[in-house]
Amino acid sequence: MKSFLFGLGLGLGAGILFAPRSGEETRNELAQRANDLADSARDNFEQGREKVRSGISAIRNVAGQQQERATGTEGGNV
User: Fold this and answer.
1) 23-28 contacts: CB < 8 A, separation 24 or more?
2) Contact, 29 vs 16, CB < 8 A?
3) How far apart are CA 23 and CA 26, in angstroms?
4) Are 37 and 9 in contact (CB under 8 A)?
5) Cα gap 8→36, rounded to integer Å
6) Distances (CA, A) of 50 to 5, 16, 45, 55, 57
7) Which residue, 30, 52, 34, is CA-closest to 42?
8) Which of 16, 34, 47, 73 is deepest in the core (most CB within 10 A)?
9) Can you give the pLDDT at residue 55?
10) Rounded distance, CA 16 to CA 69, Å?
11) Are 29 and 17 contacting, i.e. CB atoms less than 8 angstroms apart?
């Protein structure tokens, strides 16, 4: 994923440098693309964080079930 983002940034930079536009147009385009890239990175980060949270929750559920089985408290056998 890092190499993809690096290649994307490198390609965007080269394309902008060699594009036949005015300086203001180029700066506006660069700012827009940077914002789009930042939004994409934020979305990917949030998706990753949600996957980690759901994984932790699943591990806690399994650990709780195993603890109940080990202590014999499952189903109200106390």
Assistant:
1) none
2) yes
3) 5
4) yes
5) 12
6) 21, 35, 9, 8, 10
7) 34
8) 16
9) 95
10) 62
11) no
Query: Token pair for residue 4?
Result: 């993809």
DSSP state of 55: H
pTM exceeds 0.85: no
Q: Taking Cα atoms as reference points, which of 34, 17, 14, 37 lies closest to residue 26? A: 17
Give the type of residue at 49. Answer: R
- More confident site: 74 or 33: 33
User: Element (H or E) spanning 48, and its range?
Assistant: helix 23-71
Are the C-beta atoms of 33 and 12 separated by less than 8 Å?
yes
Q: For residue 19, is it left (φ>0), alpha (ψ between -120 and 50) or beta?
A: beta
**Placement of tokens 């700066």 in the chain:** 27
CA distances for 75 relative to 28, 60, 68, 71, angstroms: 64, 18, 9, 11
